[in-house]
Design goal:
heterodimer; A: alpha+beta; B: 450 residues; mainly alpha
């Protein structure tokens, strides 16, 4: 992804849930690692205000999409780990379908080519 | 150094209602991971900490997000406490409060061992309990605050003295059975002792204006809690009667001789402890009620005055009527006190202040009429303990309200400071105590225990 793109606030918010679910589908993780992973995968473009991730995680926990357990970090600190539940996996699949539709619709318009086209054409 | 900064940050975060201790742990883990990474990247402790905190986001936004997710936390829970040092403290406090409440419950049953039956015990027993009932509850409440505030021995002496004085006066003075002075003393002792409890509440610093105001706030909340507990207790007793009645057993005498008296004195301590524990938990209720009822009582007094003028009728001075007017004044003083205690002293005078002033002026007018009626009665029938007590109380309340009205009027016309009004009210509190003691101790002597 090209650097220097500012992703609109709404889009960041909307993509939060599927991203968290998708990363957790790779295996158990915790808040800080999740943020690092998103940063890495997006090439540094998607940067969340770190603290905002936690209310999102708590909402997913309340809705039964993820489950949390307290463990220890390597340094021996208390750390809260999250893992995906079956319901969460279903939700992820559902979200993937939704994003696919949005993505395909956008592709079908001139939107994508227009946006990604080099300047001057 | 960094540990210090992190623990400061924790405390700061912990003050937010929507973020609980576990969230703080989670966020701390995040912060520390970030700090470690940043340090590995070559930053020093201070920089790493500052950047890590900044990346977590603004505290206000963060706590708003947490509040959106955990809206139930805004309804602060009283009983569920967080683990950690505050939790241990809370548990100990609860134990002490329950212990003292139980002690009060036991204390009120002790006289029965000496043949003074609470129920159907005859005149002597009834008069004993009437004179002493406050002594079975308030010392324990005072004890709770003495423990809570870790009173030093000098303050302890100052606290114990009024209770001993009260006990001696009530039990050594030869009150005539069922006499007026006995009843008056029994009614005024709780008032006198309540202000003594205030000494314990203030941790001995009873001269402090702020502590007095806090005690006023405490008293209002305590009263509301007590009423709520009493309502709950009533429901509990009703169901006890009902379920045992259903299997043909009569639980009434058990309730009357045990649950009711022990509950009545025990709840005094429990209500005090709850107010103390929840102080920071829930918005105070007394000021809200004040806001609600000030306009209504203003309306009542205005309507009364207009009706009196319209019909030309005068106040009929019966004993109940006198007591009723005294109570009305007490209520107005209470409304004024709570309005004052909840008001931001910096705020400019507003509509509510004008309303409050109208209420006070109306109360003064009504009271002037009542005072006139009492004086007429005294001049016609001479002095009696009841009339003098009613007159004295009236006078004290009139002085309090009168000067308040002057100060309030100055404030509303922006010629005075609101603090002056506040200070007047708190400075006046000891007057009530002195008067109560006069009625308890001096009245019986002056009026020959009649």
């Amino acid at each position: 992804m090209p650097p220097g793109i500012d992703i609109a606030k709404d889009l960041v918010a909307a993509s939060g849930t599927p991203l968290v679910l998708a990363i957790l589908s790779e295996g158990e993780s915790y808040g800080y690692a999740l943020i690092k992973r998103v940063e890495k995968l997006s090439g540094g473009v998607l940067q969340w205000t770190d603290g905002m991730l936690y209310p999102v995680l708590h909402r997913l926990e309340r809705n039964g999409l993820v489950e949390a357990s307290w463990g220890k970090s390597q340094a021996g600190r208390r750390r809260k780990y999250y893992h995906l539940t079956d319901k969460g996996a279903e939700e992820l699949a559902d979200q993937q379908r939704q994003w696919k539709v949005v993505n395909e619709t956008l592709r079908a318009t001139r939107f994508t080519s227009f946006r990604l086209a080099p300047k001057g054409i | 150094m960094i540990e210090e900064r992190i623990s400061e940050w924790r405390t700061y975060l912990r003050r937010r209602q929507a973020i609980d201790a576990k969230d703080v742990d989670e966020l701390e883990d995040h912060l520390r991971s970030q700090v470690t990474d940043l340090r590995e990247a070559g930053l020093d402790d201070e920089e790493a900490f500052l950047i890590a905190v900044k990346r977590l986001g603004k505290l206000d936004t963060l706590s708003r997000e947490f509040a959106r997710e955990h809206s139930e936390r805004l309804w602060k829970r009283l009983i569920v406490t967080d683990a950690g040092e505050s939790g241990a403290n809370w548990g100990r406090e609860a134990l002490v409060a329950l212990g003292l409440a139980a002690a009060a419950g036991v204390a009120i049953k002790i006289p029965e061992l000496f043949g003074l039956k609470l129920e159907d015990g005859g005149d002597a027993a009834a008069s004993f309990y009437v004179r002493n009932f406050s002594l079975f509850a308030l010392p324990f409440l005072a004890g709770f605050f003495a423990w809570r505030r870790r009173l030093d021995s000098a303050a302890m002496m100052g606290l114990v003295t009024p209770f001993i004085l009260g006990a001696l006066a009530m039990n050594l003075l030869p009150f005539g059975s069922g006499g007026h002075t006995e009843l008056l003393a029994a009614l005024h002792l709780p008032m006198a002792l309540w202000l003594a409890v205030g000494v314990a509440y203030a941790g001995g610093a009873w001269r402090s204006h702020d502590q007095r105001m806090n005690y006023v706030r405490f008293s209002g909340e305590w009263f509301i809690y007590y009423v709520l507990i009493a309502l709950g207790g009533g429901v509990l007793m009703g169901f006890t009667m009902f379920v045992f009645g259903a299997i043909g057993l009569d639980a009434e005498s058990l309730l009357n001789s045990w649950i009711l008296p022990c509950g009545v004195v025990g709840a005094v301590v429990i209500a005090g402890w709850l107010v103390e524990a929840k102080q920071s938990v829930i918005e105070n209720v007394a000021p809200v009620l004040t806001l609600l009822f000030t306009p209504l009582f203003t309306l009542l007094l205005l309507a009364f005055l207009v009706t009196m003028v319209w019909t030309g009728s005068s106040i009929d001075v019966e004993r109940e009527v006198l007591i009723g007017f005294d109570l009305l004044l007490v209520l107005v003083v209470g409304l004024l006190l709570y309005a004052i205690s909840a008001r931001d002293p910096q705020a400019k005078p507003g509509l509510f202040d004008v309303l409050q002033l109208v209420l006070v002026v109306c109360a003064l007018l009504v009271d002037a009429l009542a005072l006139w009626a009492i004086l007429a009665r005294i001049s016609a029938f001479g002095f009696s303990p009841n009339r003098v007590a009613a007159f004295g109380e009236n006078l004290i309340l009139v002085v309090s309200l009168g000067w308040s009205a002057v100060l309030y009027a100055r404030f509303v016309r922006s010629r005075g400071d609101f603090r002056a009004l506040e200070r007047w009210q708190t400075r006046y509190l000891p007057v009530y105590a002195v008067w109560a003691w006069i009625v308890v101790v001096i009245f019986p002597l002056v009026f020959g225990f009649q």
